[in-house]
Design goal:
This protein is α+β, with helices and mostly antiparallel strands and 90 residues long. The chain has 3 helices and 3 strands; from the N terminus they run H-E-E-H-H-E. Helices cover 39% and strands 21% of the residues. The protein starts with a helix and ends in an 11-residue tail after the last strand.
Length: 90
Amino acid sequence: MVTEDLKKNIEKVLREAGGGGPEDTIEFLDTPDGRVEIVFVSPSFVNQDEAERQRRVWGAILTNLTDTEQRAVDFVFTDAPGEDNSEPVD
């Protein structure tokens, strides 16, 4: 299970990667295997394709978190405001 302290550390890293704007939102979803999926919504993602968003986010994760902390992150959804990828795909 991912501790609250680790979630705070991950959130700090992601906020810095996203520009740290007050409009950024980060939601943690606990997975059955004890890791987290993250929904990260930031205006800084507007006009960026998904590949560029993922490079930014994972670059920050890989640079600023330990190997153990990195393994706690299962996936990061990167959305711009108004995009909604939170619904499961059938």
